[in-house]
């Protein structure tokens, strides 16, 4: 059985408004498209890839959905606050925030950031700023609106390397691990306002920019090691985001969930 490219329920996110950071390409673009297909109006956040973000918006609109592109560096609070205000002005609410943005990164198992003997603190600080500071800024930006609504969903995107570091990307994995602590603290504090906060951790997804050079042999090997005997597609992962964004997950908060076919079981 395969779930790759599985379609979403068209009405699952009807009347919801979502911000997806880092949504001009890769996983973020797929999340934005599938959220729109499920009925949400989507802000497609990007940093540099304006043309790519506009293409995502065009694809969403061609399929009958609502979206617009907005440039904002998530590591800077003021631009992100301006983005949140623009979303509220356009659509009247902010129901879902997906923290997907990732600083530039090279997944190279022979790089010097894969050994504690050679990794530099500058590697850590770049990832902490892009991943953790970025998430803190976006949460602070949407929080006034979500508190006013007395509801909201915040979904942080991580990696299953935090559970099983098969490649020791010290800087990347440490920053992604910090998102787990951030998620649990946010859930604990913000639950009283009806805001749910969860984290989804993906494995090697088939296929993103990060995994574009991965051979079929590697994908096949990973498939044989999962209980489901298949790799997780980008569409599969995006559907998990939609589940957490929808009202179906109203009783779930503060959780760190692996979306990797059971490869890791935290």
Q: Do you know the CATH architecture?
A: 3-Layer(aba) Sandwich
How far apart lie the N and C ends?
Answer: 24 Å
As for the CATH topology, it is: Rossmann fold
| SS-based class | alpha/beta
* Widest beta sheet: strand line-up: 3-2-1-4-5-6-7
Order of helices and strands: EHEHEHEHEHEHHE
What percentage of amino acids are in beta strands? 15-25%
* Name of the level-1 CATH class: Alpha Beta
Task: Describe this structure in a few short sentences.
The chain is α/β, with parallel strands linked by helices and 266 residues long. It has helices at residues 26-37, 50-62, 77-91, 121-149, 170-190, 216-225, 234-245; strands spanning 17-20, 41-46, 66-71, 96-99, 152-159, 195-202, 256-259. It has a single domain, classed as NAD(P)-binding Rossmann-like Domain (Rossmann fold, 3-Layer(aba) Sandwich), CATH 3.40.50.
What does this structure look like?
This protein has 266 residues and is an alpha/beta fold. It has a single domain (17-259), classed as Rossmann fold, CATH 3.40.50.720. Helices cover 42% and strands 15% of the residues. The chain is built from seven helices and seven strands; from the N terminus they run E-H-E-H-E-H-E-H-E-H-E-H-H-E. A seven-stranded parallel sheet has the order 3-2-1-4-5-6-7, sandwiched between helices.
Brief descriptors of the model:
266 residues, alpha/beta, Rossmann fold, 7 helices, 42% helix, globular, disordered N terminus
